[in-house]
Amino acid sequence: MLDSQEIRRRIPHRFPFLLVDRVLEIGPERVLGEKYVSVNEPYFRGHFPSAPVMPGVLLLESMFQLLWIQWGGPHGLHLRGVKRLKFRRSVVPGDVIELEAQLLAADPAQGPPGSLRFKCYGRVEGKVAVEGELIVQLREPKLAQESSPIQREPARA
């Protein structure tokens, strides 16, 4: 089991964008985690004030972060594709999302070289809220100068 401190050591995400609170089980081909959904989450103020619902893109992001915790290594992951993503039920304040990711293939035929394909689930009270396949790729190490915002080229309009 990984607590919040160990999770923060493994991924760069921080509040309000850290979307995995605890990892319950971690193995070479499967990882299980949880996200506790609080009414105080900042996105609930606008999505939707009278009937708060966790945005689907954040459900997808929580599954991606779970992958990063186990398979991201020191440089992290790029999300390269999503297949057969289904939203089955709403996630609301007070819910605990049980996250699960299972490794399906390394270097899948449909993905870029060096990619990994996973079947991911988000369940609330044992019922699937979101499910789909995520294709990720290990990130290359950055050179020191690449990560400095001062040395980036300005965006052109």
Structure, described:
By secondary structure, this protein is an alpha+beta fold. It has a single domain, classed as Hotdog Thioesterase (Thiol Ester Dehydrase, Chain A). It is 15% helix and 36% strand. It has 2 helices and 6 strands, in the order αββαββββ. It has a 6-stranded antiparallel β-sheet, with helices on one face. Strand 1 and strand 2 (30-36) form a beta hairpin. It is globular, with a radius of gyration of 17 Å. The chain starts with a helix and ends in a 19-residue tail after the last strand. The model has no long low-confidence stretch (mean pLDDT 90).
Q: What is the number of helices? A: 2
Q: What is the architecture at the second tier of CATH?
A: Roll
* Uncertain residue segments: none
CATH class: Alpha Beta
**Fraction of residues in H or I helices:** 10-25%
Strand order of the largest sheet: 1-2-4-5-6-3
| CATH topology annotation | Thiol Ester Dehydrase, Chain A
How many structural domains does the protein architecture include? 1
Structural class per helix/strand content?
alpha+beta
Shape, principal axes of CA atoms: globular
